[in-house]
Amino acid sequence: MAELAWITLGRHPQLGLTASTIRDDFGSAHQLLLDAGFSTGHPDFAYVLGDCGPDEVRATLQQLYSAVASHYVAIDDALLDEGMSKNPAPPRGSEPVRQLSPAPRQPDGRADLAEFAEGLSARLPGSWTVAVHGGEADEGPIPLSKRVWDYGHVSWALSEFTTRRSAVLTSDSGIELLISDRPLREHEFLVAAFEPRGTESEATTKTPNGIVVSNDPVRAASRVTTRLLPRYQEAVRETQLSQVATTVAAGQRVLAEWDAVSDSLCDADHWPLDERYGLRQQVRDAEMWAQFAPFLEHGPALVAHAEETLPLLDPAERVAGRWAYRLRALREALDGGARVQAEFQMVVEALLPDHHRSKAVFADAVAMRNAEGWHYSLTWMDNARVLVDIARADEAPPAPPTRPLRGQRVRSARADAARAWSPHAARQITAAIENNAGPPAIRFFNSNRPPRSR
Fold this sequence. Notes:
This protein is α+β, with helices and mostly antiparallel strands. About 50% of the residues lie in helices and about 10% in strands.
């Protein structure tokens, strides 16, 4: 059964009569206010009648009170001034209108969001922590609605309605989920994912739009696990593959710039002319490491997914692209880069901040890390394209089978048997026999005798 729509009336010293609507799902209250002369578009009030005389206000109220009798709408006029007649008498000759008395406000029947978030986090795969936010003041400098990775219903709901309470679930792998009340639905919640920190998805990336769940944590956990999390992981993988393509292009530009200037810094025997060669080499190492370092964190997951997908692809394509070898090279590059970064962190942690040579030692450690990581950075740039190639091959539709399937062979055999028994096939066989036959045989009976009828 539909809920009763409400019209709340008020009085402003300068604007006159004002109004607002509650639970007006079918727009009945909105249409009644427009018919009574109210206007919309004011920045502070939903409906404003304007500066009218007492007689005009009384006529407007009379029209509203008379119109609500035939609609599923009630009027709350408790905010009007006591001196104004809130329920004027009907005109003479008309039937009295039974006024609906305002019912007491019903308490909010929504489930406890904090309890729901705790129950949901306990049933999701992995380890999750819960942070409950009471309002916009607890959200931080960036509103939660701006961080949601959604272009669908959840994004629209957060932009059109004020979120009074929400919760953020954070997994041990860095996944963040937002839980908020679904507007106009007391027994449902909205669950959406945040875009990973430090990543920028392209406009063509398919976002993992949020979902609507019931206030039952068991059913909600099932929907999040089977629908939202797989879409999120696929979107993250697509974003990371886009970053791989961008990084490979940037690395190629760094190498092209180095090849362009390295010859000018060497003599005819390819020996460096002065210290400018070493300084430019440090710039090259730093630029390559800056492109390679982000993949030390999420690169192993990309390589692992490609290794799982590789056996399912076309063997000829795998051999032609040397995909297995290039994946092993990427794995070795990530392991070597992680080892170089760990050694650099040990040096940084051993530095004394107040020592006068700390800055110089730190700069030398950075240059040493970039130089030792040059080989691994170059290996990654030379082979990272295979991740994109494997992903595209996995998305491509399967090629048609070269050999007919068993069902097709059975149907072909049946078709051949049917053709063999057909009259058309019999005539073709007879014509072929007559064309290839030898001389006619000698007949030992009277050929002038007519053939015997059957």
